[in-house]
Amino acid sequence: MNVDRIENDLFNYRFPEEEGFLYGFNLYALLSGKDVMLIDSAFRSQAKQVEKDLTSKGLILTHVLLTHFHPDHAAGLLALDRDITVLGSPEYKKTLTKDIPQTVTPVSFSDGFKFGEFNLSFTPAPGHSACSILIDINGKYLHAGDNIMSRYDGKAILPWVEFHELAKHIPSLEMLKEMSRDRVLLSHGPELPGEEDVTRAIDDRLCYLKTVLSSGGKCTFEEAVSGCSCDYVGKEFFEQLVAGSVN
Ligand SMILES: [Fe+2]
To answer: What is the CATH number of the domain that holds 180?
Structure first.
């Protein structure tokens, strides 16, 4: 685990990929005095390590905000106190499969949420999951969750999406592109460095997703990625995606 200070009261707990794993994890920490809000909780192991580090610094984990409720983002809640305030999409029940000890407070897409000096606002971005959201932090950073995924060596990871959700994931990515943001934070992989890289990363994902959709899931992997500027890892996500097209 590495801890990077992004600015004043914003930190990134970074867990690079372990041997044999496709992706690592980012847990962003927002500080308000001694109180801490985490964005995502990863699995129990990562959540415990982060909480231990916060406690050793005299800080208190009070809030966890989830980009979405897949297990690699939400399962860490199982290791955390039941009194922690958990925030996420109003659609969280469509994705959450485990009984977590905390109660989920749905975020408001119109009012946002204030945490100390942080003004957070939320935009629904369904596709990767029904409850995926984009999180704006002070108008400066945009956390894109798993709409874009990469490894810490910069290698692009294929989008993960079920075939019947493809037609939702594409407009969510197009919306993200139109936001023209230059500091995009991810749950898996390093911050994208600048608007040009953000746009290229989104275009590559769109190219892949649109090719698979227009073929009805009948294209080969080579055809699906033929128009992309990057080399992807995570070919198993393609196989899972097209397998869903026959249902
Ligand atoms: Fe994820």
So the answer is: 3.60.15.10
CA 136 / ligand 1 centre spacing (Å): 18
Q: From CA 71, how far away is CA 219, in angstroms rounded?
A: 29
* The predicted structure's pLDDT at residue 247: 57
Other Cβ atoms within 10 Å of 117 Cβ, number: 12
Phi, psi (deg, nearest 5) at residue 42: 50, -145
Cα of 64 vs centre of ligand 1, distance in Å, is 16
- Residue 145 alpha carbon to ligand 1 centre in Å: 7
Cα 128 to ligand 1 centroid, rounded to whole Å:
9
Split the chain (247 residues) into runs of 10 and give each run's mean pLDDT: 96 95 97 98 98 98 98 97 97 92 97 97 98 98 98 95 96 98 97 93 97 96 95 95 85
Residue 162: strand, helix, or coil = coil
Let me know: does 41 contact 80? Beta carbons within 8 Å: yes
Contact by Cβ (8 Å): 143, 183: no
Q: Does the pTM of the predicted model rise above 0.70?
A: yes
Please enumerate, as own/partner, the contacts of 107-111 that have beta carbons within 8 Å and a separation of 24 or more: 107/65, 107/133
